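Exercise 7 asks you to align residues with tokens for two separate proteins.
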Amino acid sequence: MTRPARNLEPAGSARDLYGVELRRQRQLIGLSLDRMSDIVNYSKTHLHGVETGERLPLPPLSEKLDAAFGTGELFQGLWGAVKREHTPRRFDHCLELEAQAVRIQAYNASVIPGLLQTPAYMRALFEEGERGRACTEIDALAAARLGRQEVLRGDDPPACWWILSEATLRLAVGGPAVMREQLTALLPLVNTRRTTIQVAPFALGACSLTSGTLVLLTLPDGSVTLYQEGAGNGEVFDDRETVTRRVGDFDYMKACALSPRESAALIQAALESYEPCEPTRT
């Protein structure tokens, strides 16, 4: 039996507001879901799910809808609100600044940074860390995080420099297949015009950035905002003293970590450690 559509609450939910506005704009110009599907190249099932609030609008649907309806950046703006709605509140301000940043520098101690995560890796993290949530909620969290990666695909993406603890390569999130895909996705980004990845090996030992996450966001006016996160908590700083100290810590880690070439070799070695074993021939 078909499940009845739930009542949308656009006044209290960005996702519901997105669905209501999509249906309104579509009906305003007399388009069926089938025709809309042809125009934006998304399935009718997905579009219906977005309209009824059952699915999140996967990128880059918002840009395609704005182009199709001639609505400027209406749906792109709504998508920003939807993403924030499905992100822990402590990270909201950091997300807003991340979308504006011209330079992003980050250190991660235990997991691959969100901007670099594959969908399967994301889902594995959420399924373990958000136990008890429904599949649709996990889908929403993953879609929101995936949407953040749009900043890397724009016409003028920020310069990004990530330092990853070797632990991020060795922690088998989601199992071997997920890790092979994730580490394979890292390799092309190790040393490009806009991206750098270094690995801090276990042999480096303890340092001021050994645990947690550190993100430094440089805005167009040259100001730098710091976000740092530990187990279950995060905080944003923009005072000069704190930011200057943590920028120094990050620069020191750059000097101590492996070079991009050495980092690529270590990522490749970790990737190969997840390769499936060949069956024994008899």
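Second protein for Exercise 7:
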Amino acid sequence: MAKLVLRNCFIEIDSVNFSDHISSVTVTLSKDEIDTTNFGGSGRERAHGLKDDNFELNFQQDFDAASVDATLYPLWDGETEFQVVVRPTSDPVSETNPEYSGTVILLEYTPLAGAVGELSETTVTFPAQREGIIRSTAT
């Protein structure tokens, strides 16, 4: 079985490719836990609730036009929905390179963080709306 070393992820935010400005990515697929325990059992019972998926990306900050801050700040300030697309590699979508995409919002944005002599980075969480994050293996 092949192992994957992340070297060439494809990451797109609102149609802008940020693969060269992101140092870590986490795609989280989650559902609320609904307690359905009743007096008829001897232990807890649970059901799946609503999806609560998100993307977490660590950006290497850049204030150039059409780069990180110029893209993220208007999305946060304008309170708009937009698309995030993530693939394990920059290769086309396939069975071995699935695409995870979703309509998201930006609720919190830290445009500047770091200490003297350090790379300015910001970690951003993008919560998915409605249908959550969708996995696709076909174009």
